Amino acid sequence: MADRIKIFLKNETVLIISLVLAVLSSFAVRPDSEYAEYIDFRTLALLLSLMLVVAGAAKLGIFRWIAVRLVNTASDMRQLALILVMLCFVFSMFITNDVSLITFVPLAIEVLTMAHMEQYMIKVIVLQTVAANLGSMLTPIGNPQNLYLYGLSGMGMQDFCLLMLPYTLTALVMLVVSVFIFIRKDRMAADGMRGTQEVCTDTADADKNVVLLHVRYVMYALLFCIVSLNCCKSYFLSGASCHYIGSRGNN
Questions:
Q1: Residue 76 in 3-state DSSP?
Q2: Are residues 50 and 2 in the same domain?
Q3: 204: domain range?
Q4: Which residues are bridge partners to 76 per DSSP?
Q5: pTM to 2 decimal places
Q6: Cα(189)–Cα(22) distance, rounded to whole angstroms?
Q7: What does the pLDDT read at residue 201?
Q8: What is the 3-state secondary structure (H, E, C) of 155-200?
């Protein structure tokens, strides 16, 4: 029994720390009936919907399919690293930073192994992690914090993106510079290049019912658009209402 408890504590370190901090915080803010109001159920519902749609699309191999075709255009290690890093940077704006890493880091490991470029693996993964977190700050759906702050601020979608655009562009430049500094322009061997092309089998070729697969692609694309629009519409209306109430109060 004691061994099981030790294993549980070791495997669930973050959970235990969170639980302890939650208990300690209850002494500063005493539990009462208003606790339920602290939970932003709207943000959680929208985030859950977004994650479900993205998970379904990832399971179909849509993001991997796009990534492999981009990777196959690389002729040297620096180009390959730049593509792998930019995949995380761009996709994190739309499918959240966590999903971007879960999708593209395993692909990077597989591609670099097939290309016999394992010596760059740590550097590429670190750059991918940084890229996913920096790219996700541009849009409200890039990460949960943005979604919450977007709703709390009452800003419009365009205003939010324009506010974050200078920081995102600065981060993009710094990422590109970092790739050029840390990744050398090594030529990949011919067998390594063939390996990168064989990393992923085309999902459409593997699936016998191509028509059904294409229908799934369209359905998930539509669902993603609907969820994204609901995020924007919900918070836009919320912001408009707050602005209206504030203007009435000033009058």
A1: strand
A2: no
A3: 39-250
A4: 187
A5: 0.67
A6: 53
A7: 46
A8: CCHHHHHHHHHHHHHHHHHHHHHHHHHHCCCCECCHHHHHHHHCCC
